[in-house]
What does this fold into?
Amino acid sequence: MGYLMLSGAIMAEVLATTSMKYSDGLTRLWPTLATVTGYLIAFALLAQTLRTVSVGTAYAIWAGIGTAVIAVIGTVFLGESATAAKVVGVLLVIAGVVVLNIGGAH
It folds into this structure.
């Protein structure tokens, strides 16, 4: 159940971050409300996740997958460049999450 909550937290965080892009510096009402709501849901679900999943593992997965998904959204849907450095950076983040999980952060 913890990993299901973590998945929800990641989705909420990705939606909140994407909404922030459209909020124009938090000056547009609806994207700003979506940003705040998304982050509130993300943190609430992450807090529930920490009841059953260790903090190191949960946070690494949350931050790593969230970062990778946001980078893909930025590249595919928002016209941001996909430089070699960005691709390598995202792969290193994902590798870090994998190493933490294999290395016993559970």
